[in-house]
Amino acid sequence: MITLARSDNSLVSRWWWTVDRWLLVTVLLLIASGILLTLAASPAVAERLGLDSFHFVKRQLVYIIAGLGVLVSVSLLSQRGVKRLAAALFLAGLAGVTLTLFYGPEIKGATRWLHLAGFSIQPSEFLKPAFIVISAWMLAEEFRSPSFPGRKISIGLFLGVAALLVMQPDFGQTFLIGVVWMGQLVMAGMPLVWLAGFSGAGLVALVSAYLLVPHVARRIDTFLDPASGDTYQIDTALNAIRAGGLIGRGPGEGSIKKVLPDAHSDFIFAVAGEEFGAMACLGILALFAVVVLRGLSRLLEEEDAFVVFAAGGLLALFGLQALINISVNLAVIPAKGMTLPFISYGGSSMLALAITMGMVLALTRRSNARLSGRRLRR
Amino acid sequence: MEGTLKLAMETARNRLMVAVFLFAGAFMALGFRTIGLGLMQDVSLRSGPDRALSQVIAARADIVDRNGVVLATNLQTASLYADPRRVFEPEIAAARLAAVLPELSQSTVLEKLKSNRRFVWIRRKLTPRQMWRVNALGLPGFSFQMEEHRVYPQGSLAAHVVGYVDVDGRGLGGIEYYFDDRLGNPADASEPLVLSIDSRIQHALADELKKAAERFGAAGAAGIVMNINSGAVLGMVSVPDFDPNHANLASGTDRFNRATAAVYELGSTFKTFTIAAALETGTVRLTDSYDASEPIRIARYTISDNHPQNRMLTVPEIYTYSSNIGAARMALDLGRDRQRAFLAGLGLLRAAVIELPEVGRPIFPQRWGDVHTMTIAYGHGIAVSPLQLTTAIAAMVNGGTLIPATLVDQPRHIRPAGRRVISAHTSDDIRMLMRLAVTSGTGRQADVPGYRVGGKTGTAEKSGVGGYRSDALVSSFIGVFPMDAPEFVVFALLDEPKGRAETLNFAGGGWVSAPVVRNVIARIAPILGVEPKQEDESHYRQAALLIRESD
Predict the structure, then answer these.
(1) In A, which residues are within 8 Å of B50 by CB distance?
(2) Which domains does chain B have, with CATH numbers?
(3) Per residue in B140-154, pLDDT tens?
(4) Domain spans of chain A?
(5) Which of A13, B25, B285, B453 has its CA 20 to 30 A from that of A236?
(6) What ipTM is given for this predicted complex?
């Protein structure tokens, strides 16, 4: 363990003593289990695609190293820095998502990707945390000076972002951002009657998606009546978890992973279940729960509205994405393509999450209050 | 201002608290679900992505001959089925399938794919190459079910004994049908069913019968080789035969087992029973004679001899020269009731008991008058299956016990308990007579030097409309060897053989069937461990002295 004297006033030392070390360690543990599971799940997929066995492992290691750098760098930012970063990312993300509508290649029926200098980037991944922070910023401004139309701006931004995402189309991300943003509005004092109204609107949106978009309808039908459609992927995932039992078949012993589509990304949780067992899955769940619950409960003592809205929103985004992914793996909700944060394979996802958690760490640093010159709690 | 901000922060924190609880609840719920799935381990064994490939339709036990030669076994094959609701574009799928499986009808497949069932067979039991081709099409909605396919490596050899199965592996004929429960029982699947058949003997018998049937233009042929002491059937042939691997392509005639299902009037071989019954009951002694100088006229029949001697004939002469007149007169002395009881005792008046479903019922007169007594004495007016005759003849020469025939290998050291039908003394007399019929009678062509063959010819006219047809014969020969200590009986029958120049246009049993038995014995005696040796003629002197060489 690094030993740093409290009196040491260097950047590293100050960071170490002010950052939420528990959160940091938990995130690092998640990334470590992600490496382990990528090693388990991705060679089978790579071989199926005719690639080098360790194709995904090597790339994921590069992403992880980059992600760790981003995570630490972002966590060093001041609150002002976080706001600037969010604003820049938001603009870049909006531009990127708009570009995908015109230039993005169509993959699995949607245009979500941009090819840039040999890399594929999914701009919506970066737009998500940026939007949450910007929205928190606006809501917090209205908190401080009620004349500021923060809520109206936030609603306007949300509608814009949601429209772009629906056009891709990406209903999963739209839903995710919608729920988190709604949570922010509720925290910012929105009357609960409004919540009912917005939920009604969300329901209407869901029903119209069901009626108008065939693949959404198919997935929901299949979930409600498994006999009505192709449940191969989800059946296979369930079988993988069952086959693993409580303690798993052992590393490398999994066989169902070899036929499970997207085993290295959306369905990596099922591979964990097959090879390492339900107990290991429980461990992963616990890591996510620690990040979300510890992060959120620490905000209960926070006085700064922006920090509460932004960090709360980012943690909710993170937690909700994990919950949705795991629920799909466990066949609790209809199939929805969403990665398991820090564990699934994917560069955009890894970097965006590094930024997300980096911003959470930056915003929850104990020194924030002191450094920004506000009064200390209690 | 400061106060409202404080109040608003308080609301925010309270609401954040709700979010914390919601998240905690969600994580806990997923935790329980994970554990629940982890505990359902047993389910994984029942279903899985490779379920279709690992699950095999129930295995069936092999059938092997007495030496372990495989007569029926299983091959794993893949059968193609579809879930029509998962098939995209049935027209294209049907066209592409028909292109790789040309024997499929595209329209039939399309009809199946358009049905709204969840499971349709497309084609059963593909070869590995066909399976590979279908896989290479990459059509969604199609899968393979591994199935065991019954194969008969020996082809048509012993086809009538082994039988055949349907596409689902259920026995439809022969041993496959008779032992369907035993063969299909998964508990016994690893234990082969061992038959008494010896495929070497089976092959020799089939080969000789087919050659003879072809040579004499016979409509069919049948043959049996049996161990007279154990009842074990070592060979059983019916010509024409079929390939059980493609039993559905065979005609009913081909599948008909002439050795067990057919009944024939077998002619003079029945004189063996007439004489045995007469000797056993003391009606005659070997030295007694009957007048065979003139044909017998009774009712609308005339009984005459095929090899007329036109004189008094001793009992051995009646047998060796195959005198119908002498046998008929002897049967009258024996009497109807004793004749019928004797034949019934040999199992000739009821269907044979053997491990096959295909057994024919004998045909005999319901009102058994003197005419019948006389004709049955030389094998007319009664029709039995070759198996019945062979079993009964075995009882005549094995010392006098009737031993049931069997197709299943029995423990070889135990001699099955039979039922005594004649005394050992009478059996000795019959042995002498049968040997003499070959050395100096109608069965000369059956003799194999060194193997002491005994036997009796049988030639019967087939009954047609309005009487017997002299142009359609059933010619048979029942042979036994080695006659000084009999072990095996060989029966050969040709159905409607046509005479040839080298047989002086004769088509009787002595001309067409006796050579088959001779050739079969010459081929199988070494396999059966019978040593050729110099014959001790004193064995038969007692009877031989009663035979006067014909002019």
Answers:
(1) 255, 259
(2) 201-549 (3.40.710.10)
(3) 888 888 888 889 999
(4) 18-365
(5) B25
(6) 0.89
